[in-house]
């Protein structure tokens, strides 16, 4: 007979504990008889008083009530709401320590997989705030008023916020202006319980190099009351706005954007520049959110690819062709693939915009297209991957092993899937000889970006 094990802590219990670690989500970890308690805002080395909020089978969540002994790495938090909303959950950790935490996280995951891989110190920012070039801000009604802000973590309760701390201030300013116009015209905010109300969220993109700006009003259905007046008011309050778009999203659930875009004013895209290359960016296309660090990240990826004039490169998960087009002038041909059709349409336009004629872009799942290219006999010397958090598909790895590129440059935003995929590539004969290089794309948050080079063994 199995005996049900009791958790050693109970809901609402008050405890004094030592914080021993930080989770990959940036929460402090304490243990009571080996049972982990995750505590927001607590740092390793601290002794804290916590109140147990929730007890699950294998762990509990605790609320930090009092810091009894503070870590020397603790700094004054800018605003409690940035932790509550998850905008900047590491704001209380000194920036150099955030960089160490990110390096350590990657190292630990490789160690756990018994892979002997070196990890270099994280490349950080001189000014680790106000860096984001994109915001997607939820809109809700609070106390009868349309508000913009961010959700409390693990909930859909909106906390009104005007200064988002990690976003370019031009974006914060635009959101306040648009919010006030929507209030003036009594446009309703979306209510996800009743599925009624008009504005679901406001997306803003800002080109750091070009200062071009796009505002997207995401609406629950086609109707946008007082459309013409709102367009005029936005143009008057944001005279330099380059693109105003309505995105229709009448889906139930958490999808941020719908499939249909209606151009309200200006262009259907904005332009920006990275590494002396120009890019058109449509509302649905992925574009890295920290342009200063992106240049460092891509320069590293390009250097580490050791490109030469006769090389054929595959850039998988290529988005609007950022890496492909920065590499194209150095090689014979680049093949890019992405599953989002708008991104590939942008990539093709971006090739023309930069007078690049040695890049081919395909709309497909990377795993399907790699197999097709392998079957067609395409044999790249270098494969670059920059996948979403879930990493690369096993069938993609099979095609890499068939194509036998000399190098695979892996740009990763999730060290857990990076390590899993590296393991599969190492099993297939690849080696990691150079240290993995983390680059801090998301200061004040626990997100970790890195570049790893896998070389084909002899
Ligand atoms: C992290 S972004 C990288 C984009 C680009 N390399 C850049 O830096 O701008 C990941 C990209 O993968 C694409 N994507 C997601 N799943 C995919 C799949 N199965 N096959 C191809 N592309 C995919 C997304 O559309 C997105 O553009």
UniProtKB/TrEMBL annotation:
InterPro entries (alphabetical): MeTrfase_TrmA_AS (IPR030390), MeTrfase_TrmA_CS (IPR030391), NA-bd_OB-fold (IPR012340), SAM-dependent_MTases_sf (IPR029063), TRAM_dom (IPR002792), U5_MeTrfase_fam (IPR010280)
SUPFAM superfamilies per UniProt:
Nucleic acid-binding proteins, S-adenosyl-L-methionine-dependent methyltransferases
Q: Name one GO biological process term.
A: rRNA base methylation
Pfam families reported in the protein's UniProt record: TRAM, tRNA_U5-meth_tr
Ranges in coiled-coil conformation:
none
Q: Any idea which positions bind S-adenosyl-L-methionine? A: 288, 317, 338, 386
Q: Does the keyword Methyltransferase apply?
A: yes
The keyword Lyase appears for this protein: no
The record, for CDD domains, names: AdoMet_MTases
**Where does the TRAM domain start and stop, copy by copy?**
8-66
Q: Which UniProt keywords apply?
A: Methyltransferase, S-adenosyl-L-methionine, Transferase
Matching PROSITE patterns: SAM_MT_RNA_M5U, TRAM, TRMA_1, TRMA_2
Q: Could you give a GO molecular-function term held by this entry?
A: rRNA (uridine-C5-)-methyltransferase activity
Q: Which residues form the active site?
A: 413 (nucleophile), 413
Q: Which NCBIfam families match?
A: rumA
Indicate the family of this protein: Belongs to the class I-like SAM-binding methyltransferase superfamily. RNA M5U methyltransferase family.
Stated name of the protein: RNA methyltransferase, TrmA family
Q: Which organism is it from?
A: Fructilactobacillus fructivorans
